[in-house]
Fold each of these.
Amino acid sequence: MASTTLYSQRDPMLKKRDGFEDILEERRNSSDLKYALRCYAPVLYKGLTPCKANMLKNIVLQSDHVHYVINQVSQESGEAPDIIHEEASVILEEMAHRLTISTVRFFAFALTKAFKTIFQHVCVNEEGIQRLQQAIQEHPVVLLPSHRSYMDFLLMSYILYTYDLALPVIAAGMDFMGMKIIGEMLRMSGAFFIRRSFAGDKLYWAVFSEYVKTMLRNGFAPIEFFLEGTRSRTCKSLTPKLGLLNIVMEPFLKGEVFDVHLVPISISYERILEESLYARELLGVPKPKESTSGLLKARRILSENYGSIHVYFGQPVSIRSLAQGKVNRSKHNLVPRHIPRKPTKETQSFVNDTAYRIVRLQENNMVLKPWVLMVSILLQNPEGLELSSLAEQTLWLRGLAQTYGAFLDWPDHAPSAKVVLSSLALHRDLACVSRGRVSLVLGEPQCSVSSEEAVFNRAVSLLSCASYRNQILHVFVRPALLAVAMGNAASSKKDEVYNCFSFLRKMFSDEFILCPGDTVQDFEEACYLLGKSGSVQMLQQNIVVTDRGQSTLSFLTGLLEPYLQGYQVVCQYFCEESCDSLTEKRYIPAVRSFAVKLILAGNLRCYEVLSSDMQKNVLSALLRMGAVTKVKIADQVTLRVNKLAVNSLEDTLGGRLPTQKAVLARL
Amino acid sequence: MASNSNSSERQRIAQQRLRVITGHLLKREDPVADSGVTGTHCKAEAAGSNEAKKGTVPKKRQEIMKWNGWGYSDSKFLFNKKGQAEFTGKRYRLSGMILPSLKDWFENTFGANVKQHKSPATPSLNASALPAPNLNDAFLQDLKATGIPFSHEADDRVFRAHGHCLHEIFALREGRGFQRVPDMVTWPSCHNDVVKIVELACKHNVCVIPFGGGTSVTGALECPPEETRCIVSLDTSQMNRILWIDEKNLVARVEAGIIGQDLERLLNEGGYCTGHEPDSMEFSSLGGWVATRASGMKKNIYGNIEDLVVNIKVVTPRGVMEKSCQGPRMSTGPDIHHFILGSEGTLGVVTEVTMKIRPIPEYQKYGSVVFPNFEAGVACLREVARQRCAPASIRLMDNEQFQFGHALKPQVSSIFTNFVEGLKKFYITKFKGFDTNQLCVATLLFEGDRDKVLQHEKQVYDIAAKFGGLAAGEDNGQRGYILTFVIAYLRDLGLEYYVVAESFETSVPWDRVLDLCRNVKERIVRECKERGVQFQPLTSCRVTQTYDAGACIYFYFAFNYRGLAEPVHTYEQVERAARDEILANGGSLSHHHGVGKLRKEWMKESVSNVGLGMLRSVKDYVDPDNIFGNRNLL
């Protein structure tokens, strides 16, 4: 089947994006109660096998798959199958949702009230809704929203209810279940709960995957989960987790359904409810445990203005058309389909590619506000800017972002100064204007605090700002990597630049959404975009910076600077400070205090390395590249460092060492 | 059908009668003037008389059969002046009858219009457009010396240039013909004739393509366009005798050119049958069955062709291959019969076969069961297979085919029958709550002695009841089987009105039956849409055979091609996609149609590289010069 459903990623601007409708507008003009109680009759999947939420459990427990695993576990553990069966039933009880319309109506009512208070607009692309409605009728559908806030899944159900669409069942983390009453209410609004980790628990996996697959096969409801696995605290997309995606693909790969449609959904918040919470979390203040009382305390957010939300329902992506020519489904012909098997290499890489593709689609349809552009500029000018100069540069950046296909929500017909000012007003806790000069508010200037606390406060502000800048990184990341590569490469020779690019890409593949194996495509895309913005000229063998390209390249390099520095600092830590007994647990605090020391000594100005997210990403990059290895001693995991390797990575990142080995067979 | 005794006396008399009747029969019809056909008949070692022996198939087939469609020239569907459908001729139960609901069904299903949109065929073969035969003179000289009849007339050659694939029939109807056709046709009358022909072919490097019934639907009979040698079509139709019957072992030695209906009729006269009844048995030949691994409707009792043959004699370029005894089973390495079964004419010509025979069953009874939906029907068939109590034949038709079967009901003469039909419908839909757009029908055929049949019938109906099936009478069942033979004629009707149609089949494990049926149908619908077919296609399937470990599924697929530039190309793309879908869903490349040229591309995937290499090395040894050069299979 031709993959007409996918559009070229090369130039997202070519595709016309849909317009938005504000769904709060109608709510502000009519009765909320009437809305919550209105007739709800969604369009259902044409192959639906009607069944109640409770019957699902029986189907799952009686499935061949679960039976098989029960017997297997029973044989391995020596327990009687009955007992294992009982265990399975308990797992399912703990997991299963109890979707009931009355609870949904309650949420519809309560959320309307809350949304109207804290948000100006909730905008949805209605064409996307129409496409979704059609998809739901034709095929089992999987909804894949981006994940930036706790709000996401309530918001999703809210929107679907508003448009009279089938309500989804949602895979949620177990942590929600701990919340009194709320946990049960979420369950009744369609959430089902999964343990955070159950590696090696065959029975759990069997029950869980069969539960999801049963709902998919029967067309019970659209299945919703977050590809990123958890909320992104940094506002840039997280590398996708593949577990659930593997599960929802299986019914197609095994021929149990004709097709499954994946719907990428991008939810962009102008201001995230958890903004400063995230920054603190990244700095090591532990995440508060989800509790009902905590939620009640969070009521204060009701008095603030969080701007608007944009929800973009992307084009449904047919797994069948994606798999065409990539997966040989007949691999499943020789073993009964209910016997669980590890996915083949081919399947794994297909699932992985699909996951990245969907996350990129999510990224591409993220709506970006002017503030995101402004903060990107402000972060590169820590000493502040004249308001007029900020406005001018913001306009310039708007042009560049649009050239690169960004989805900007820039108010029509408003003078740029006004746009800048109103953005500043909304984010007044992050930036301030004094005497015509705009600067970021970096920590409260209190003299009573210790210098370390001052660093912490500054870091909170900077990380909050960075989280806005991060929203636009996906637009610039490829050209920016190329810009850095051009700076690091010994010459302007294309293959040398490619080598540098490929190294950087590899280094940062946990940091940004860069699909493994797509190096050549990414390089070509980067060249194309830089060429398109007139920043470089592609000659036969060389890539040459144009005169007017200098500023673009330096902006792009500046955009990645915190990452380049941060990664080098961690490498430096490994080379200078780490000892053989460094445990994995100790790693983050140790790096943090190393960085704080550097900052206090005035040797480091980059605060972003304090973020545990970056620290984790560096570690996994180093592990991936074999410069650090994990060794299990007793019940402790310690990190073994190959200092030579780490050192050379650090120097290569800093452009002090040429990138080794040519990898450009296809250029 | 009833016969009450099996005593040896009866058999002796029967055998005697058989010989006498065979003699008479063979003298029957012989309307063919041997114009253009030279040579004399073989004087081979045969039990009966050889004089003017003739089966149903004359040398000049085109005189009784359509040159550009299915079956006998006198039998076809048409819409008469009143716009009603009727089936012409006298040969079938349906012949001469009016089918009042066919037109509506046809128009509604395909969006066709019987009055306005016609796509008539070229009336006759344009012989002048045919390239002159590329004859090998030396071969011709030697062949003449043997006295074996041959011809290089245009209509003889064209008739043997094709089977019954859609693209073949379509090309004929359009008058486009084929890129390559046989250069001559020869009619051996016995094994020795074949030996002579093959020897001469080897000597003069001539390509030989065996031709049996000509009912292939895999492109197996097409001549490879790149073949530059003289192509000789070896028509086996005149090798059609039963050489002997061995009643002690219940086997018969039969020449491989005999066609199904003749074989069955001749055996019936002696009180025997083979029980091998493929849907094409009116025209397909014993040799063709062996060469394609054919399957018969009643295989549950009698077995498929590989279960039925005891000995095969085959003439190859290396010489004659035959087992030295008729032991019922042997452990002598891989069974050499299996190199020939399914070889599709690539290794040699099957000339004689010893085949199992059975006394004609004492009692036969049709039956049918209505199920609320296809899922229930499949579950029932699976259970029947599990209990190993499948009747001689059991077939499950999906809802589309049920509706289609309805459209083929002849005009009911009495008001009473009409009334009864109405009552039945009321009972099933209103009383039992079956949805006419969901329900499906299984047709059954029981055979054996009367008591056992009745007992068996009860067992099957009891199982059906467990799956919500309701017995729906003998008539419905019988009609299902009668339709088997006339259904093939319907494609020609469709082709008159812009509708192309084809069938294909597969076999699949039980647990995959439903998934495969659903996915393949859906794939067809989508592919049609994507390729610009303007009308909703008809996709329909039925489960036609049950096995211990799976079932055979038969698909029908048709669409209205008005508005398409290249309907056949579109059709082929869709069929290809459907086959991909079948393979992806655990179905086989073919259950009984074979591979031919149509499905060659999937052979490697189907049997592995090594498997294909084995087959290739057999071909290389047996036929190093590719004398049997039809290029099927490999």
Amino acid sequence: IASTYNRDLSLIVPLLQGQKVNHRLHSCNFFLSPIAAHSHIIFHLCLCSAEFPDLRKHNNCMASNLTPAIYAKLCDRATPNGFTLDEAIQTGVDNPGHPFIKTVGMVAGDEESYEVFADLLDPVIKERHNGYDPRAMRHPTDLESSKIQSGHFDERYVLSSRVRTGRSIRGLSLPPACTRAERREVERVVVDALSGLKGDLTGKYYSLTQMTEKEQQQLIDDHFLFDKPVSPLLTCAGMARDWPDARGIWHNNEKTFLIWVNEEDHTRVISMEKGGNMKRVFERFCRGLKEVERLIQERGWEFMWNERLGYILTCPSNLGTGLRAGVHVKLPLLGKDPRFSKILDNLRLQKRGTGGVDTAAVGGVFDISNLDRLGQSEVQLVQTVIDGVNYLIECEKRLEKGQDIKVPAPIKLFK
Amino acid sequence: MPFGNTHNQMKMKYSSEQEYPDLSKHNNHMAKVLTQDMYKKLRERATPSGFTIDGVIQTGVDNPGHPFIMTVGCVAGDEETYEVFKDLLDPVIEDRHGGYKPTDKHKTDLNSDNLKGGDDLDPNYVLSSRVRTGRSIRGFSLPPHCSRGERRAVEKLSIEALASLSGDLKGKYYALKNMTEAEQQQLIDDHFLFDKPVSPLLLASGMARDWPDARGIWHNDNKTFLVWVNEEDHLRVISMQKGGNMKEVFTRFCTGLTKIESLFKERSHEFMWNEHLGYVLTCPSNLGTGLRAGVHVKLPNLSKNAKFEEVLKKLRLQKRGTGGVDTAAVGGVFDISNADRLGFSEVELVQMVVDGVKLLVDMEKRLEKGQSIDDLMPAQK
């Protein structure tokens, strides 16, 4: 009994029927009388409450939604790969809250996590994604960039444009759970596919373990190099294990299409360029993604995707499109206006510093991008960013002229 | 449980070559010993509580090397780790502990009467004296692997046992997650408060999970006997006081430990111990006695002398900064302690420190007067 920290409730029925059961984790056969099985149920519930994390000082989506009842129900389950609830929530237990944003507080270890732990993940997804209900709604995927209207910003204000997303390779575990061999397999599959890209997408892969000093310096100068995560949100989830094994960066020769391998997701795909031609950035983004998808399909692989959740990624916050389309834009006056936050909110945009998610703005230059990820398509989100940024630039121009600005009406979600 | 390690069956889908870690840039004990063949053999195993070879080595894979010291690069998840993975751990232990063989026996001696002298280290030089060790409670997984329930059970048992201490050992427990601001400040001022580990060596092994749940500090009212609960080990036991009376520190240490052990036994629990490895702790470097006896001592002249390192080596002592294992000395004040843990008894190790520090202070005094220390050079212990 000292070793029975994980008793599977689903074994109780066959136990009550007097059958032998083979416990997954202990591979021992045990055989209980109905009375003993009853006390095991109580014992199990007591064991679960001994294991329930202390979340009283916590403020993240996982802590807001994990009840003792849900924990008791899920704590003995595992995905086919062996990923457990405790592993999924570890990052949220270890990191009670972030000063600026309400963090998600849990991750997926594989595609099946979103099913096996749906009792917790569904309410977390609903809270994080503005009420999106994975049981009732469908997520639209749309990578037809020709549908974008306008999308060429005033370059006196917009310094650069960027669209990023992530893609996971179906059949392989995600970064929190993957073994070294799986991670290396992800690298092999992706690098092999990328070597098939042609034209303006022709490029080269730089493995983190093998790059020369010179290559490393060039990648730093290009602002392409990613380093071992330092954020405890990521390290506590186990995604930095075995660093830098099987991690690397691929980019095209023109340095406008970039792929990170095995950082927070199997792949992060980035299209970017200086200036304000978001339409072209998105066009390359869609074309590149579709081409990579075709290349991995040729080799018998596919991306993790389903119609409830769209593209499956490690963090529930990146489900759906996984898309963040953004610009670096000069808004020195608007940035100081007390209505700035409200305007952004209503436009469904968020601001960050130009150093990324955990930084502050410098010199009036903001990183402005879409807030939403799930429930709207890629085309819809990019259009939202285009329309929104154009509005912000108009506000900035008006403030320059001493004119007043208006807070726009909030735009509708889930069109 | 740490990640990637509960799915041992999944990993068997891939060949051992595909899973074997890249240790080409590594310099730690684990990396020196773990060959492909050894990995192939050990990856099929797990301890009864489910700890696997990848759990053992994760910290060593994630941390290729430390600038000052040769790190161990592996940890135990439970008592059985040292048996199930002995193919890896025996050579690591041998390398780390000066040639200690798998057949060697370790002597435990917690009788402080056997210590000769040690009550008269010159307080003009020796600022403080301290002895620490660790203890693990048999039947529970160790910090890299334990569940929240197990960790809480260890805390509960420890609080109960410590609450029974009396006399000059009577004290109080402060749970990390419940302490008031005032209590916290007092513990900081007393230099008792430990914080969530920041060293990647510890974090990568999973021992900081669920912080600060079930972690706490117990100390006696006199503030000379201190127990850390659920930091790097189940228990870390520390006896300390200002000045140079190491004998008194060690006596309290032995009395306290023996008393705590009997209190646990009254509650049907015992410490992890066997006659080959002595006391079993999380890090293989702390096996045997788990004992570090040390002083903070002023050696501004000796530390600048060319022979300093050689003297320490001969005396089987090591130096650290006064901030602990990863710090440098400040103002000529060093933390000097025994280098060994396994293969010598507690009394023997403290004797080495007492005799060694006496000699270091004598050398310092000579150098102050501009005299030579050549005739004081010790033989290799």
Amino acid sequence: MITIPYLTAVSTYFSYGLLFAFGQLRDYSRRIFDWWSTNNLHGYAPICLAHEDFYIRRLYHRIQDCFGRPISSAPDAWVDVVERFSNDNNKTLKRTTKSTRCLNLGSYNYLGFGSYDEYCTPLVIDSLKKFSPSTCSSRVDAGTTSVHAELEECVAKYVGKPAAIVTGMGYATNSAIIPVLIGKGGLIISDSLNHTSIVNGARGSGATIRVFQHNTPAHLERVLKEQIAEGQPRTHRPWKKIMVVVEGIYSMEGEICQLPEIVSICKKYKAYVYLDEAHSIGAIGKTGRGVCELLGVDTADVDIMMGTFTKSFGSCGGYIAGSKDLIQYLKYQCPAHLYATSISTPSAQQIISAVKVILGEDGSNRGAQKLARIRENSNFFRAELQKMGFEVLGDNDSPVMPIMLYNPAKIPAFSRECLRENVAVVVVGFPATPLLLARARICISASHSREDLIKALQVISKAGDLTGIKYFPAAPKKQEEVKDTIKLD
Amino acid sequence: MYVRALPTTDVNRNTEWFTYPGVWTTYIIILFFSWLLVLSVFHCSPGMAWTIVHLAHFTVTYHSFHWKKGTPFGDDQGIYNRLTWWEQIDNGKQLTRNRKFLTVVPIVLYLIASHTTDYQHPMLFLNTLAVFVMVVAKFPHMHKVRIFGINGDQ
């Protein structure tokens, strides 16, 4: 539940209206100007439709220097950000050879595996020498090594399911697996704030898609009842399959899914549950097993558990864990398994080693320390930000904390001011977030020390004062932790 | 002072911003301030200024609501490319609160403009034409209708 000051809402709409109007004026003058000049591209079809890239050209390019900043070191707690300059008002950006060492608050480096690790990296280098960087073939051809088999067993055991299948890319895991699981005649009910990969997979499957209000189990129940009563769109026959897709932690809100209620509703109406744990696997829960462990949901109740290794394990790729029959079926049918290149072997080794560290099987307690540290860091940072008067979203224990900015001009102002003080933050605007609700998203890592966090707080407070985003009075007001029934520990 | 922004179920990012609080107020404030602007720039009578505001409002809203089709970004893979903004709002459901508000605004503007110009002739004709086109374009029966193929697809 986001609370906006009314004046801020009105001024944000007005700012976007102004930006839109100026963009249209520039487009018109460009069209008139181009009508006068000759062009020698007769007979060629346009690359994109006239106004499909309006947002990119007229709004995104103006503040392009805040997005996609290249880095020149591993994304650890501190990172080298390459400096760029522009001669034509941000239309093109040129890299210089200099880079600044900045505090990294933007990488999803939840457990600190993003750079050299004393246990994982030597094993990965050995694996790189023994196997090669890439298997250069799909899993069914020549792309399955012993490491792949070990990885799938390791992931299945870690997540708590009988079997797992691993693909080389996290996005492709969702968009290639959902069409295999459900097709025409089926119903997908997805949370309104689900990630684009899920939306693409759902659209590609051919099933009917319905959306329920974000994280509201009551609305999910209403949608389910309505849809089951109505049946398929024109024939009103019963649905062949109903699947409810939710995420563990929503990356733009930092909120944790209300899994126990959703699972009980799905059991009542006999719908399948697909849980996307991209951000929550490895980051929350006592042993890092994700949102099921945190909220006390039995993994046998969640039918399909999906996750990615990019966030907490410092690698790449995604997995699907489920029953043995499901995984066997996917191995026969899923295009990501049959035709796409398998996950590179050193990356697979990194995942196996990271899981061993988390579970303490490497002989030290670094895993437990990391998990405790990320929980402490997140709670400390969130509490301090809220005391300063920022509007911070997300639940307690979630390492993702978006700070609300709202006005479009504050997006580049906040980002550039923080960069000037050597803190690298990620800002997100429309269309990744709703129009009004632009935010700066902070991702806390276990490799941030207490001094790093205090420096970050000072810089963010200063930038926040300059841009005027302390929308709440600076008092310890706990607004966003009021989730009624779930006890998060 | 503070309002709660409830999450919507509208997946179309092009129209979802219209469901958040504060849009109606912003719209009315923009109209009022543009009237003040026209008055101060052109030094005309208040009625003339309202007529100018009404006609400018007609041009701008007709172009952006009923002429331009699709969305200004490419992420949705072009599924709304045949629909104007008016046809995209509220997922195509007719007679919602937003649609009713947007139909009432040009009518109120018309009444103000014709009253303050004392129903005199050239302005009255132009205003009436504008409001007629605006209101007919917003009828539920005109959903996805292209008269004589104007603004139809290639």
